[in-house]
Amino acid sequence: MATAVRDSHSYIIKGGKEGRARLAVISRVLAPSTQSLLDRFEPLSGSTVIDAGCAGGDVSFELAQRVGTNGRVVGIDFDESKLVLAREEAAARGIGNIGFHNANILHPWPADGAALVHVRFVLTHLADPERFLERAWEALLPGGAIVTEDIDYGSQFCDPPCPAFDRYAELYIEAARRRGADPFIGRKLVRLLEGVGFANVDSALTQPYGRQGDVKQVAPLTFSAIANELTSSGIATGDEVGRVTAELDAFAARPDTTMSCPRIFQAWGRKPVGAQFQPTKSAA
Hints:
The protein is an alpha/beta fold. The chain has a single domain (16-270), classed as Vaccinia Virus protein VP39 (Rossmann fold). It contains eight helices and ten strands. It has helices at 16-39, 58-67, 80-93, 129-139, 163-178, 189-195, 218-232, 238-253; strands at residues 48-52, 72-77, 98-102, 114-120, 140-152, 158-159, 199-206, 209-210, 258-260, 263-270. The strands form two sheets. A seven-stranded mixed β-sheet has the order 3-2-1-4-5-10-7. Strands 6-9-8 form a three-stranded antiparallel β-sheet, with no helix packed on it. Helix 3 (80-93) links the parallel strand 2 (72-77) and strand 3. Helix 1 (16-39) packs across helix 3, helix 1 packs across helix 7 (218-232) and helix 5 (163-178) crosses helix 8 (238-253). The relative contact order is 0.17. This is Methyltransferase domain-containing protein. Keywords: Transferase. GO terms for molecular function: transferase activity. Residues 45-152 form the Methyltransferase domain. It comes from Mesorhizobium kowhaii.
């Protein structure tokens, strides 16, 4: 989930164990909407499924339940520290139908013949998302489905107004753009999928928010995860990062505040039987 790209130089969020902990929080927040999304593609029992950019394996574990003991899940990511944790968790759960592979999702994948490819919060970090879609196309069986989930940073909100919350969003957008990433890619997913030839493309929209629990930790955790990028690139000073961090934490801790995640688009389509991949730049 969003850490699978080694050579794009566009991933701005801190990885490793700290990054894994942040993604676990986000996965808990998104579990209901992701489960509902995957329900659209049942039955998956006995199938091969690929979780591209799997990170710590949160969605991979969900997929493993769906494919059953006669199916298999292939998780692909380049952050070995997250993969080690994912393998350990799989072993602790007694899940034997997942393989976690250290690989670059922009290069040929270590699996094919997939009934479904899932990718969450990866395309936003790619300077050339169509290159990823080509890899997904190659890995899918004819008639197989691609399922994408990605952000649109122009839409998160809080109540009451909080300048630090707004500044966090501005700084994230600036950092992503400087690295060639796209913080608004969610709204483009349908065009991207159609542009490379996927058929029966459709989409849905979700935006978790609340006054308590994990959802209020997403913004502070994400800002902490980009702090080094902000200061090392000169986008923000250490003093500003410290101030925004303190104000965000204080705002999240208040019981009378509401905070949202960015808007999240879900889009999906199928590889037509007999179709050929024809990459375009129409969705750029």
